[in-house]
Amino acid sequence: MVKAKKYVVKKYFEGVPKRSDFELVEYELPPLKDGEVLVKTEWVSVDPYLRAYNRNVPVPYDQYGFQVGIVEQSNDTNYPVGARIVTHKGWCDYTVVNTSKVSTGNSTEVTYKLPDLKGMSPSIGIGAVGMPGITAYFGFLELCQPKIGETVVVTGAAGAVGSIVGQIAKIKGCKVIGFAGSDDKVKWLEKELGFDKAINYKTADVQKALQAAAPNGVDCYFDNVGGEISSIIMGQMNKRGRVSVCGSISAYNADPTQIPKATILQPSIVFKELRIEGFVVQRWLDRWPEAITQLITWIKMGQLKPAEHVTVGFDKIFDAFVGMLAGENTGKAVVKI
Ligand SMILES: NC(=O)C1=CN([C@@H]2O[C@H](COP(=O)(O)OP(=O)(O)OC[C@H]3O[C@@H](n4cnc5c(N)ncnc54)[C@H](OP(=O)(O)O)[C@@H]3O)[C@@H](O)[C@H]2O)C=CC1
Ligand SMILES: CCCCCCC/C=C/C=O
Questions:
Q1: ipTM score of complex
Q2: What is the pLDDT of residue 104?
Q3: What are the structural domain ranges in the chain?
Q4: pLDDT score at 102
Q5: Check: CATH 3.40.50.720 for 131-281?
Q6: Which residue of 34, 40, 111, 207 lies most exposed, with the fewest beta carbons within 10 A?
Q7: CA-to-CA distance for 160 and 333, rounded, in angstroms?
Q8: What is the number of the ligand closest to the CA of 247?
Q9: CA distance readout (Å), 60 to 13, 71, 314
Q10: CB 331 within 8 A of CB 127
């Protein structure tokens, strides 16, 4: 018998999630059936959608999320002992995985072999080459359809998705402006990632700073945060600009009955003929391998930097989660178990 530990959400979050909303449960895993493997967790991902989707399922629920683990026992020849696997089994130290369960666009089950990362840390498989990188790849390229020389703005620019969006935009020959929440992040975006301009949204006059950075207007906006800053950016878009709405983290901790208001956007949408589209990355689940291959190639060619913010310890997953929501991470927030 293998003893396992997992985080269970026992209470819906109100505002910033609290440790007392979770219970740490220890239990015994059942023996493996045919087609099942025992996976020891190596890396756990903490992501904003774990906050945003909190009320989508009844409590109590096991805290799901992406993770990379190593197969310790196997009843599946496709996943021998020692193979690495990406699953959506979340915040646990051991889990039993039925590898034959097929992932679909509506499912919360995603299981695939960790791709050959060519010597990079397995954690990259849940970051720049995992769901967040894939989100950046399809959400930006498919919805924004960027062209050489266009001006691209990304919010949440120093995070897991935003940092990849900005770098892909540079690869595609665009001028890139990023908004992030600290001077250190701004410096990192400009000096390390090659953004043309980065702006601290907490201290700058966003309207004026963007006018100065993009005097000819904005062609593409990748929106990670929503709220007033997004209204300001959309108000400075060029005719037929494209907006990819990826998330709205500025309001995830808000009371759902008191969602903050932002400036009306319809005049810009109508007169500038903007195209605004939201998406969930599962839309392209059947094409994830295409994104994974391209992202690995860009990293190996030195065109894309896969930054990570690593927290160590199973007991620290909650802290890493609330730290990420508060902006402590630069790059992808992951926990080493
Ligand atoms: N549609 C989809 O399929 C997917 C959507 N997403 C969305 O993408 C967005 C980014 O996710 P991800 O890259 O994983 O997370 P990040 O790595 O960007 O981490 C979250 C970041 O959000 C920023 N933030 C926190 N509060 C605010 C606020 N009030 N206003 C502005 N920024 C804030 C913080 O950075 P800072 O210091 O700059 O404030 C923080 O570091 C989220 O909205 C998420 O829900 C992610 C994956 C898939
Ligand atoms: C198998 C579940 C995949 C979850 C994808 C998360 C999408 C995130 C949306 C908003 O943040």
A1: 0.99
A2: 56
A3: 2-125+307-336, 131-281
A4: 59
A5: yes
A6: 34
A7: 7
A8: 1
A9: 12, 28, 20
A10: yes
Fold of 2-125+307-336: Quinone Oxidoreductase; Chain A, domain 1 (3.90.180)
For residue 100, what pLDDT band results from cuts at 50, 70 and 90?
confident
Could you read off the pLDDT of 181-215 as tens digits, one per residue? Answer: 999 999 999 999 999 999 999 999 999 999 999 99
For residue 52, which amino acid is it? A
256 cis-preceded (ω within 30 degrees of 0): no
User: How far, in Å, is the centroid of ligand 2 from the Cα of 336?
Assistant: 21
Give, using CA atoms, the residue closest to atom 11 of ligand 2. Answer: 49
Which residue, judged by its Cα, is nearest atom 1 of ligand 2? 108
Q: Is 90 in the pocket of ligand 2 (CB under 6 A)?
A: no
pLDDT value, residue 281: 97
Pairing of strands 237-245, 275-278: parallel
**109 Cα: distance to centroid of ligand 1 (angstroms):** 23
Confidence of residue 109 (pLDDT cuts 50, 70, 90): confident
- Taking CA atoms, 294 is separated from 130, 190, 288, 298, in Å, by 12, 23, 10, 6
Do the Cβ atoms of 81 and 71 come closer than 8 Å? yes
Task: Write the burial class of residue 164 (CB in 10 Å: 0-12 exposed, 13-18 middle, 19+ buried).
Answer: buried
Question: pLDDT-based confidence at 256, cuts 50/70/90?
Answer: confident
Distance 198 CA to ligand 2 centre (A): 27
pLDDT of 293 reads 98
Ligand 2 geometric centre to CA of 104 (Å): 13
CA 81 distance to own-chain centroid: 29
